[in-house]
């Protein structure tokens, strides 16, 4: 009986939706895959991850609006070409200019990147900039074209369905499946290149014509050969770098190269192909072995060897510490120093589980295996807000991932560690005489000035700012911002150690100039000198605009854009930016949190579809609910919910932050049900979402919260254009 009912339900609801389910799953899986891989292998797109996402949105939307058939072989060829672009490092040599094709875009565009990017070239080259912009346009067009046939197939599946809301619900549910499949693959440490291979072979079901099959299988064979090309060489492990994939990034581990005899033993870890951290043997025995070589170098450079190890220094400033918190523990150097200092309780927070695993296995001193060390795989900001208290020392040692964040990134959740609000939370979890030892690389004077001002506003006292370097003997060093919960107690402690006090005074870092705005949760852009639009963001916006104008004739000649659906798409994307920012601040910026946030949004979409399908809701009340829910986001800060009982607090926050998405989904479902051509409605919505993604750059000027007014404006326009 049960089997009969299942078969009946399958025949009634699911049997005609297999194509829709497949292409919906594939689009979101491939979208996430491409964002991950392009941002990893071509570093400029890690700073401009929105550009890859916008290409996917625009390509899918255009595909729905074009009537001329686009062969799925185009998508297959696009995947093949993208694979070749990412896997090869062909070096181009021109007069007075040498660069790696595509992967060298970051360096070519560095002269117009008016903020700091690691490994940025200092040379100015007009020809290099022109080539870099040209390569960026080519890559953008490649991604756009790759998604166009997939979008067209999705639009066709939506158009032929007699139950548009049911079809849309299948689209959303399959998208959830694609997102979870990608996330589980990433959590399992599988290479995204494997995902590209699966996509390449999975596209076979799209091929509907026999004459296309031969081309398809030829592309698959070439693609497989390219994917199997080794990224590393060498007969033995670690003679050449070995790559690991975490849920967040590409990690490359290699032995410390002894090009300088005073470098410590250990490993170097690159994040997304940029040097990021070391796993170094800085034990007493190792330091003594290298003293004969290291000491003369430090003396010559004017560094006191007693205080040149940034990892040991916090426990010289705060002798007798019993409880320590390390935020951004990385591979274990800070934890190893705490163990060497005999700290009874060491809490270490590291967001990346793969980095923790690498630290446990490869760090020479094995700090994460010590009974006094407790490692938490969590977001630093979330742990500060929800973790322990009574710490003698809080260490924030280069917790920011420069390879993932800069002024060029709209959403900088790592940088939320350095806002006034975050550091105020740090102050709360310190004991009465506790200290914050924050080290940071300061490539620009105004970055140091901003960090100094942010710490000052959070703690209410001027921090001691000084530089720590060891010429590579004990790591990279940095600028230390040292401050105590009780300023007088810190002064007294430092004064008791006269050599230390002299060192801090001698290597004091000064950041003169006009006062600079501190970092806040509303404006967390560490690497932007002041509220303004970064030049590179403007260039990218122009590139997208020019591209759209160049091809609009072919796209919109057959179908007219639905401006109402486009406005709703822009509003949705702008509020999604708000929702992820605030949810991640509340729950932590882990991959699990983001997965559940976006899943929750899509579940609210399914709920809205069910409501519209089951009963007729008046349009005016949907619009009122939408605008009211956005207005509540403006009026009610999340801190208000601290007064809600803890057992229901998180649920209340989720409902509060997701309510605009629910009413937005009601608006979309209501209108989709009545739309004459579903593909035009859906495609217009996707193109509007791309516009919303571009408009997010205004947060650099106005702050994140102010974009709620822009969101309200777009939903108001959408409601006006679609009024009944």
Structural summary, described in words:
With 724 residues, the protein is an alpha/beta fold. It has 3 domains: 17-233, no CATH class; 313-464 and 478-506, Rossmann fold, CATH 3.40.50; 560-724, Up-down Bundle (Growth Hormone, Chain: A), CATH 1.20.1250. It has 27 helices and 13 strands. Helix 21 runs antiparallel to helix 27 (707-721). The chain is globular and about 80 Å long. The protein starts with a helix and ends with a helix. Mean pLDDT is 85; it is low at 232-238 and 402-413.
N- to C-terminal separation?
Answer: 46 Å
* Strands, total number: 13
On the 0 to 100 scale, the average pLDDT is: 85
What is the overall number of helices? 27
How many separate structural domains? 3
Summarize the amount of helix as a percent range.
55-70%
Principal-axes geometry comes out as globular
**Largest sheet features:** 7 strands, mixed
Main β-sheet, spatial strand arrangement: 9-8-7-10-11-13-12
- Helix vs. strand class: alpha/beta
Strand content: 5-15%
**Sequence stretches where pLDDT stays below 50 over 5 or more residues:** 232-238, 402-413
- Rg is 27 Å
């Amino acid at each position: 009986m049960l089997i009969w009912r299942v078969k009946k339900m399958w025949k009634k609801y699911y049997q005609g939706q297999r194509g829709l389910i497949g292409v919906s799953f594939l689009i979101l899986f491939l979208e996430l895959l491409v964002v991950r891989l392009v941002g990893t292998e071509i570093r400029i797109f890690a700073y401009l991850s929105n550009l890859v996402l916008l290409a996917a949105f625009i390509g899918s939307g255009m595909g729905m609006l074009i009537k001329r058939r686009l062969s799925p072989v185009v998508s297959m060829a696009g995947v093949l070409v993208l694979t070749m672009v990412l896997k090869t490092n062909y070096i181009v040599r021109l007069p007075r200019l040498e660069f790696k094709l595509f992967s060298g875009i970051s360096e070519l565009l560095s002269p117009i990147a008016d903020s700091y990017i690691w490994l940025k070239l200092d040379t100015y080259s007009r020809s290099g900039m022109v080539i870099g912009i040209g390569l960026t346009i080519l890559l953008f067009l490649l991604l756009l074209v790759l998604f166009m046939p997939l979008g067209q197939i999705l639009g066709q599946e939506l158009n032929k369905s007699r139950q548009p809301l049911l079809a849309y619900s299948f689209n959303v549910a399959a998208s959830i499946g694609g997102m979870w499949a990608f996330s589980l693959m990433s959590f399992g440490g599988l290479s995204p290149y494997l995902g590209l291979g699966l996509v390449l072979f999975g596209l076979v079901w799209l091929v509907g014509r026999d004459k296309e099959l031969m081309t398809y299988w030829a592309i698959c064979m070439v693609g497989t050969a390219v994917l199997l090309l080794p990224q590393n060489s060498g007969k033995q492990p670690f003679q050449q770098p070995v790559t690991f994939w975490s849920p967040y990034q590409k990690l490359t581990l290699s032995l410390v190269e002894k090009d300088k005899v005073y470098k410590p033993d250990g490993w170097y870890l690159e994040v997304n192909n940029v040097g990021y951290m070391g796993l170094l043997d800085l034990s007493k025995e190792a330091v003594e072995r290298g003293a004969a070589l290291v000491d003369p170098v430090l003396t010559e450079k004017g560094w006191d060897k007693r205080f040149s190890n940034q990892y040991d220094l916090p426990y010289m400033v705060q002798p007798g510490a019993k409880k320590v918190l390390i935020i951004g523990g990385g591979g274990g150097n800070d934890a190893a120093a705490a163990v060497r200092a005999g700290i009874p309780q060491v809490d270490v927070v590291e967001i990346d589980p793969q980095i923790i695993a690498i630290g446990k296995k490869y760090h020479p001193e094995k700090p994460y295996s010590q009974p006094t060390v407790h490692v938490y795989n969590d977001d630093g900001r979330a742990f500060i807000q929800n973790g322990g208290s009574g710490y003698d020392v809080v260490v924030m040692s280069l917790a920011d991932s420069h390879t993932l964040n800069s002024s060029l990134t709209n959403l900088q959740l790592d940088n939320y560690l350095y806002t006034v609000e975050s550091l105020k939370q740090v102050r709360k979890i310190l004991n009465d005489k506790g200290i914050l030892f924050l080290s940071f690389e300061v490539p620009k004077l105004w970055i140091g000035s901003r960090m100094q001002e942010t710490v000052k506003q959070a703690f209410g006292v001027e921090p001691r700012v000084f530089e720590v370097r060891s010429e590579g003997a004990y790591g990279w060093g940095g600028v230390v911002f040292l401050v105590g919960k009780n300023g007088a107690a810190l002064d007294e402690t430092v004064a008791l150690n006269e050599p230390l006090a002299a060192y801090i005074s001698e290597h004091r870092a000064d950041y003169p100039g006009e006062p600079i705005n501190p970092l806040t949760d509303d404006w967390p852009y560490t690497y932007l000198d002041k509220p303004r639009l970064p030049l590179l963001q403007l260039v990218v916006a122009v590139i997208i605009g020019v591209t759209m104008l160049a091809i609009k004739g072919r796209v919109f000649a057959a179908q007219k854009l639905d401006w109402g659906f486009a406005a709703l798409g822009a509003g949705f994307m702008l509020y999604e930016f708000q929702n992820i920012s605030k949810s991640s601040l509340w729950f932590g910026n882990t991959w699990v949190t983001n997965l559940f946030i976006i899943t929750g949004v899509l579940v609210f979409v399914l709920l809205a579809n069910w409501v519209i399908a089951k009963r007729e809701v008046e349009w005016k009340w949907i619009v009122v609910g939408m605008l009211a829910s956005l207005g509540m986001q403006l009026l009610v800060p999340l801190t208000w919910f601290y007064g809600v009982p803890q057992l229901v607090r998180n649920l209340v926050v989720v409902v509060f932050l997701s309510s605009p998405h629910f009413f937005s989904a009601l608006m979309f479902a209501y209108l989709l049900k009545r739309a004459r051509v579903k593909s035009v409605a859906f495609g217009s919505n996707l193109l509007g979402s791309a516009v919303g993604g571009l408009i997010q750059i205004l947060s650099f000027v106005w702050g994140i919260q102010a974009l709620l007014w822009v969101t309200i404006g777009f939903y108001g326009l959408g409601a006006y254009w679609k009024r009944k």
